[in-house]
């Protein structure tokens, strides 16, 4: 008789008998390999039950039992030395979906007065109360996607477009810890599941379109741009028309929102990467910056000037000549600014342009 048969048939996974059922299951390390998959699946089922973390003092024992079982599943994911079966993958994604995909709480800054801009440095973000479980579930997903025992040809049936899209929806979470995990996981999925690459790029584009044209509210723009930085790095020449359209329709318009400071570093990096990949897009980018140039926001203007300096560093003569007249008209207005940092930054750009040896860039 196997160790699983000794504990009898699986008891209904209810909150009332949760601890008893979990503690009756042997450790994954203590069963022979022939029984490990069935036990693994039973533990996945037990970890699909959710507990209310809005009340920190209820179900403490049950929450701790689930936390320890989740940790055991993470360890198993690391030590497994055989390919995951289709049944296992199906149960894995069920457990992940049950824990991860949920309605996010309304954002604190959604309730601010109209016209106020959310500032992540000044406004306290909402922490996810279920993080003691959620963090381990994310770690489990990360290891599952990264595992050499996960066959992407089989796993793509379960880590499918719907699953990926629901992960992307979670970037709206105010909890930065969650967004950091999501960033790493989406990057790994992009690397492992080549079939999903066009879909992921398009889905991120759609998030940006919605953010720019409709809401200007999203907590994960910086993290999504970090993912795109890695994707852009992998672009080959000549740039595809899809990639140029993404630059023009999504990346450049991201300079418009008032909250650009929350993600400008990552945006500037992506823009500069495009110039490094293909200097011919520099003219398009500079004209795009001029289109969205801030008129009344001096701190944002300083960011534009700093980004402009980085773009000019990779700009060739022909591209510079196409946009230099409107460019210097704008710099001239900056020179007349009453804001000291804008004035200083504009002089730095002028000096930088004067010192550029465009002939070297042509080589």
Automatic annotation (TrEMBL):
Gene3D superfamilies: Leucine-rich Repeat Variant (1.25.10.10). Pfam families: B56. One of its GO terms (biological process) is signal transduction. Transmembrane segments: none annotated. GO terms for molecular function: protein phosphatase regulator activity. GO terms for cellular component: protein phosphatase type 2A complex. InterPro entries: ARM-like, ARM-type_fold, PP2A_B56. The B regulatory subunit might modulate substrate selectivity and catalytic activity, and also might direct the localization of the catalytic enzyme to a particular subcellular compartment. Belongs to the phosphatase 2A regulatory subunit. PANTHER family: SERINE/THREONINE PROTEIN PHOSPHATASE 2A PP2A REGULATORY SUBUNIT B, SERINE_THREONINE PROTEIN PHOSPHATASE 2A 59 KDA REGULATORY SUBUNIT B' ZETA ISOFORM. This is Serine/threonine protein phosphatase 2A regulatory subunit. It comes from Sesamum latifolium.
């Amino acid at each position: 008789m196997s160790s699983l048969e000794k504990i009898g048939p699986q008891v209904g996974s209810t909150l009332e008998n949760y601890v008893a059922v979990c503690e009756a299951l042997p450790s994954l390390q203590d069963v022979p390999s022939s029984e490990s998959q069935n036990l693994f699946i039973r533990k996945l089922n037990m970890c699909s039950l959710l507990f209310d973390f809005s009340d920190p003092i209820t179900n403490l024992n049950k929450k701790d039992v689930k936390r320890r079982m989740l940790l055991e599943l993470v360890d198993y994911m690391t030590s497994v030395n055989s390919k995951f079966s289709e049944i296992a993958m199906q149960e894995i994604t069920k457990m992940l979906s049950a824990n991860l995909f949920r309605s996010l709480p309304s954002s604190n800054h959604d309730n601010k007065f109209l016209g106020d801009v959310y500032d992540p440095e000044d406004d306290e973000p909402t922490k996810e109360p279920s993080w003691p479980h959620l963090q381990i579930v994310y770690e489990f997903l990360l290891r599952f996607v990264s595992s050499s025992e996960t066959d992407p040809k089989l796993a793509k049936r379960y880590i499918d477009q719907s699953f990926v899209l629901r992960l992307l929806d979670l970037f709206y979470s105010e909890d930065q810890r969650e967004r950091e995990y999501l960033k790493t996981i989406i990057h790994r999925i992009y690397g492992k599941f080549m079939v999903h690459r066009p879909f992921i790029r398009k889905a991120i584009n759609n998030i940006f379109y919605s953010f720019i044209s409709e809401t200007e509210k999203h907590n994960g723009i910086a993290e999504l741009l970090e993912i795109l930085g890695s994707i852009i790095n992998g672009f080959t020449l000549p740039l595809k028309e899809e990639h140029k359209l993404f630059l023009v329709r999504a990346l450049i318009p991201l300079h418009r929102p008032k909250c650009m400071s929350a993600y400008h570093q990552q945006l500037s990096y992506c823009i500069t990467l495009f110039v490094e990949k293909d200097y011919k897009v520099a003219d398009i980018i500079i004209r795009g910056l001029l289109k969205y140039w801030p008129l009344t926001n001096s701190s944002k203007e300083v960011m534009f000037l700093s980004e402009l300096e980085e773009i000019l560093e990779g700009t060739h003569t022909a591209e510079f000549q196409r946009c230099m007249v409107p460019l210097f008209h704008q710099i001239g207005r900056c020179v007349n600014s009453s804001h000291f940092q804008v004035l200083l930054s504009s002089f730095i750009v002028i000096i930088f342009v004067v010192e550029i040896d465009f002939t070297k860039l042509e080589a």
